[in-house]
Amino acid sequence: QVQLVESGGGLVQTGGSLRLSCAASGRTFSNYYMGWFRQAPGKEREFVAAITRSGGSTNYADSVKGRFFISRDNAKNTVYLQMDSLKPEDTAVYYCAADLSSGSYYLRGRYDYWGQGTQVTVSS
After folding, report:
1. Would you call 57 helix, strand, or coil by DSSP?
2. Residue 41 class from Cβ within 10 Å (0-12 exposed, 13-18 middle, 19+ buried)?
3. Along the chain (124 residues), what's the average pLDDT of each consecutive run of 10 residues?
4. Please, which of 11, 45, 70, 100 could form a disulfide with 39 given CB 3.0 to 4.6 Å?
5. In 3D, which of 75, 77, 72 has the Cα closest to residue 29?
6. What pLDDT is recorded for position 26?
7. 8 Å CB contact between 78 and 70
């Protein structure tokens, strides 16, 4: 199995930027498809972004497209989420997730491994 630890969350003003990191340990990181999800208070956990094993293909939720960018460095066993032009509605706990299988990247149920989450708060 793989262990995931997120970092980089914090408090930022509207229009600001943050970069989240998710460090993986355990099994071979490059074998895993990676995703970012978020959960706001009182809401379900929702898909944000996903990236294939090589990093050659990415997908985004419509709400973050053009503002958020997912990337990975397999040599460092880390996946990133660059978040620009942040809005108050981006406030949530952000989780990274990993899975060995491809397909249905937007479904949280397909990911077997999850980090503990990192809080992102965007003030208006």
Report:
1. coil
2. exposed
3. 96 98 93 97 97 96 98 97 98 97 88 97 96
4. 45
5. 77
6. 86
7. no
Determine contact, residues 68/84, Cβ cutoff 8 Å.
yes
Cβ atoms of 20 and 9 within 8 Å: the answer is: yes
Q: What is the pLDDT of residue 101?
A: 87
Q: Which residues contact 36 (CB under 8 A, 6 or more apart)?
A: 20, 22, 48, 49, 50, 70, 79, 81, 94, 95, 96, 97
Q: What was the pLDDT predicted at 62?
A: 98
As a whole number of angstroms, the distance between CA 45 and CA 25 comes to: 24
